[in-house]
Structures are given as structure tokens and as C-alpha cells.
Amino acid sequence: MKLLIATTNQGKVREIGKLISDLPITILHLGDPSIPSMPESPEDGKTFEENAIQKAKHYGTLSKIPTVAEDAGLEIPSLNNWPGVNSARVADTDAKRVQLALQKLHGKSGEDRKGRFVSVVAFFDPENNRTEIFRGTVEGEILEEPRGHNGFGYDPIFYYPALGKTFAELTSEGKNAVSHRGKSFSAFAFTFARAKAKATAD
Length: 202
Ligand code: IMP
Description:
The protein has five helices and eight strands, in the order E-H-E-H-E-E-H-E-E-E-E-H-H. It is α+β, with helices and mostly antiparallel strands. Strand 5 (114-125) and strand 6 (130-142) form a beta hairpin. The structure holds inosinic acid.
């Protein structure tokens, strides 16, 4: 069975590939030579859920392949959950987005520097038109300056107190073990594997 991961973000492709590598499926992603090129999905929802569903349905319907899409981002409660669903769009590079977050938090401390990553995965099966949703979150603190070179996006300023490191100081396995994406995709992989086992037994 084939599964299309609807992303072109190489950081995400690497993390997701490891998270679902145990499933008995062929994993494809956008940009794969075996996938026809498709127009880009709109992504104009107000919530992570709306965006993930929009993307999974768009690429699943066009490719006719069961598709998972993820929408993820950073929420900073003291900034009314900014940047939220706009996490990828508030500036045009990862480095500028990180600097913008640091500027907005300049002079703030303690509770005001709390942040959380959110990941919402939507699975769409074009055969029966069904969509399922899986959500994962992780709580941390936004540092005053970046630390570490792994990962992507806001990882260098996202400090995870239980491990005493930023997400950019963890290996991808270490990050996956505790991250928002680790949780949402593990929940998806578990449900998917259980449904397959049941279908085989029936
Ligand atoms: P998406 O590709 O529309 O889901 O946008 C996600 C954006 O949120 C990314 O471009 C990053 O800026 C940020 N983001 C999501 N997940 C992570 C993560 O695991 N680490 C760091 N930044 C993340």
C-alpha cells in the first residue's frame, strides 16, 4: 500500500520518515518522481486542523493515494498564541522568523516566555472519503538567543526543560521522542497499524 506525505519541507520529511518507518507501506512525498505534479494546496484555514484537512483532501483527491498532511506551528501564549497558523509565513527565512520571535519577546521573562509547538495530522483516504485527525503538543520556553544547529524552524530557540536542551540540540530521534510531531504521527501510525491488522484478520 502507498501513503503520500503531503509536504515538501525536507526537515519534516526526515522526521516523519523515521516516525512511520515501521509501517508496511511505501512512503511517497510531494516532489517524488513517481508522483504527478499537482497544483499547490490552498492553506488558508484559521486553525491547524482546517489547514491539515485542506491539504490532505487536496493531494489525496488529486493523486488518488491515501494521504497524510500535517499543519504545525509555534504558539506563544503571552503573544496571543502568535505566530500560530502563520508560523511559516511571518518572515521569509527561518533565521528571520526566529529573530522576529526574539524581538517580540524582548524584555519579557518567566511565564511570558512559555511556548508550545502544535502538530495536527490529517489522514484522508480517497477510497472512502474519510478523514481522521491526530494532534500532538509539547510545552517549552523561548530562549533569549538561538542554541544548536539541528532541526529546523524555531528549534534553536525552543528550550525543552526536561532535557535541558533546545530542540536544535537534540538528534532527530531525541526530538521525535518528545515532540509535537512525534506524538501526532505516533498516534496516526498506531491507528493505521491497528486498522491494517484488523483488516487482515477479518
Ligand atoms: P507548515 O509547514 O505550514 O506546517 O508550517 C510549519 C512552520 O511552523 C514551520 O515552517 C516552522 O517555522 C514552524 N514549525 C513547525 N514545526 C516545527 C518544529 O518541529 N520545529 C521548529 N519549527 C517548527
